[in-house]
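Figure 6 in text form: structure in, sequence out.
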């Protein structure tokens, strides 16, 4: 029911506008609000905090259906769901939850996750942003980059060092609202793909927030950030599966319609084998995503399951969209085709929420018992 409802919505309300939004770099705020009315912006939240209280399996089904039509939209929805609401639910106090969770779950506001910096990406402990305690407040200074939803969010979960000498153990987490003095939205990244999902630079110049804006205890920030990324990887893997499914469907339609040498190109073994490989890889990735989601829901040890799903699915989708472009030939190289956009959208999936290299490190450490 979840899958079918989201698919119907995406086909009717979103697909007709995707090309326009991407060309103009328009953020689909109204469409996301409609998704929120269906429960998709707070899917993992319990009913007491405004969500439908559904499981991770339902969540990945939803994300895959959104990504099947519009990758950029699925990125915006994934960040507000898993990177912001889940850590706030887990580590936030009652006052913070009352202030933000119901509004986030209803899509009244979106959330953004502020960890990456100009000189710190995969090395999260290497961030340079600082938050100095001044009485009952913290004064934040630093720069964050590649912040998804950065120009559209109503609340930001920000990571900064309260004890720079302690390295990763000195990182703390804070909730910051737009309009806070000293907080400024900087340049927008001119990206290869997902162009209607804004990725922006944020600057903090003596940005002062009350001590009550700190999430968890001082020094707990890195734990909060990594736990958010761990769960978020399942969602990004689901995004990869959805995008790949969309590329396969476009390729099947084209292979049936396009004629060459007197017959549909789908009748040629070369095309058939590409389609067969695409579907096989998609289903393998889907299985890894469902396994990780099941382990997360069951409360057992998830271990490196999320990393395996993210690693395989993110690399799989790049192989699949490359085949989709090849099947479409010159039409696949045109900005008029869906698969050209999909090819660009897919490239970042091996990078954000932890690069493929980081996923391999996580998996190898578990194999070696480290």
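Output sequence:
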């Amino acid at each position: 029911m979840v899958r079918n409802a989201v698919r119907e919505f995406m086909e009717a309300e979103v697909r007709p506008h995707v090309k326009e939004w991407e060309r103009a770099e328009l953020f689909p705020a109204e469409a996301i609000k409609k998704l929120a009315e269906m429960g998709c912006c707070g899917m993992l939240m319990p009913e007491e905090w405004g969500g439908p209280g559904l499981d991770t399996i339902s969540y990945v089904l939803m994300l895959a259906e959104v990504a099947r039509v519009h990758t950029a939209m699925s990125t915006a929805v994934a960040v507000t769901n898993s990177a912001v609401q889940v850590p706030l639910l887990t580590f936030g106090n009652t006052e913070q939850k009352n202030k933000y969770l119901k509004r986030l779950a209803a899509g009244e506001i979106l959330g953004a996750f502020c960890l990456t910096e100009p000189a710190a990406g995969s090395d999260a402990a290497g961030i340079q942003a600082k938050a100095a305690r001044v009485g009952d407040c913290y004064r934040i200074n630093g720069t964050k980059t590649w912040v998804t939803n950065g120009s559209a969010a109503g609340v930001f979960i920000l990571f900064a060092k309260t004890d720079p000498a302690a390295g990763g153990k000195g990182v703390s987490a804070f909730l910051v609202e737009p309009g806070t003095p000293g907080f400024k939205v900087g340049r927008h990244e001119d990206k290869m793909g997902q162009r209607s999902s804004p990725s922006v630079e944020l600057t903090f110049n003596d940005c002062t927030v009350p001590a009550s804006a700190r999430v968890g205890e001082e020094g707990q920030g890195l734990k909060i950030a990594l736990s958010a990324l761990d769960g978020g990887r399942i969602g990004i893997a689901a995004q990869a599966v959805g995008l790949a499914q969309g590329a396969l469907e476009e390729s099947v339609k084209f292979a049936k319609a396009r004629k060459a040498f007197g017959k549909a190109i789908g009748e040629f073994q070369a095309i058939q084998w590409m389609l067969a490989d695409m579907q096989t890889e998609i289903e393998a990735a889907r299985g890894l995503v469902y396994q990780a989601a099941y382990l997360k829901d069951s409360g057992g040890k998830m271990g490196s399951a999320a990393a395996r799903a993210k690693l395989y699915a993110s690399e799989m989708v790049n192989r699949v969209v490359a085949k989709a472009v090849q099947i479409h030939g010159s039409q696949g190289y045109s900005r008029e085709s869906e698969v050209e956009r999909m090819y660009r959208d897919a490239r970042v999936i091996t990078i954000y929420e932890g690069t493929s290299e980081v996923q391999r490190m996580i998996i190898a450490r578990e194999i070696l018992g480290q």
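Caption detail: The longest strand covers residues 137-148.
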